[in-house]
Specification:
Radius of gyration: 21 Å
Number of strands: 4
Order of helices and strands: HHEHHHEHEHHEH
CATH class: Alpha Beta
Shape: globular
Number of domains: 1
Length: 247
């Protein structure tokens, strides 16, 4: 049986289309599966797996290919020391405002405030915290500084001289790190809370003064039985986020 050139081209085209569709579905699956994990198992992630995540994330696009991110990762005893010191530091500050390298949001209004509140309510409800219980909410918030018991923390920093766009590039890196981790079965949570104490973080980890703390990423194997991992936040529709201009 002979196959004509036209049939061959058609079959090749069908194969390419199927391959593209497969990649698209896989990417969508990763986007849907990724979530902010707030309870981890103690088992460490192998250095081989972490390196795979880092190699994938390193492909992140950046302004003029500057690749401003630097990543400091703790494991084992180093994570435990960091966890204990960080938690104690925040307790000692007794709610005082931290030192941030990057300006935090001035205010959440309208739909942004609605989304923030909804996320908080979902978390509190999942772990049995009643609305208005400030002490229980405070205890839950402090878990940020214990890294939700994750075995690893990645602290992401940018070069001071690169300004806003250096930080934006690091945000893209954080997203790709999280998706790469998810593809290998590793859970993550990006934490601006760690950047709220940037002076402490820089001092404890011995980071240069010209490195601005963007955020931390706690990561490891998720605890599927913990109620804090049982909810998922909603996403706005495309219509809510996009304006089309055709003429």
């Amino acid at each position: 049986m002979t196959v004509s050139r036209a049939e061959s081209v058609s079959q090749s085209g069908d194969s390419d289309q199927e391959h593209k569709q497969s990649r698209s579905e896989l990417f969508k699956e990763l986007l849907v599966e990724r979530y902010s994990c707030r309870a981890f198992l103690p088992q460490p992630v192998s250095r081989e797996t972490i390196t795979k995540i880092l190699r994938m994330a390193q492909r992140t696009a950046s302004w003029c290919n500057s690749q401003p991110w630097q990543v400091t990762i703790t494991s084992g005893a180093a994570t435990d020391r960091f966890r204990k010191a960080f938690h104690s530091h925040v307790i000692e500050k007794k709610g005082e405002r931290g030192d941030t390298d990057l300006e935090f949001p001035r205010e959440y209004k309208g739909i942004y405030l609605d989304r923030k509140r909804e996320c908080g309510f979902q978390l509190y409800e999942s772990v049995g915290i009643k609305r208005g219980d400030r002490e229980a909410s405070r205890v839950q918030a402090l878990k940020n500084f214990s890294f939700f018991d994750a075995p690893h923390v990645a602290v992401i920093t940018t070069e001071d001289d690169l300004g806003t766009y250096g930080a934006i590039d690091c945000g893209a890196y954080v997203s790709n790190f999280s998706l790469a981790a998810r593809s290998l079965g590793i859970a993550t949570i990006a934490q601006a809370a760690l950047a709220s104490q940037s002076v402490f973080v820089r001092s404890f980890l011995g980071l240069p003064q010209n490195r601005l703390v963007v955020c931390g990423i706690s990561f490891g194997l998720e605890d599927p039985s913990h109620p804090a991992n049982a909810f998922r936040t909603k996403r706005a529709t495309v219509e809510d986020a996009v304006n089309w201009i055709d003429n």
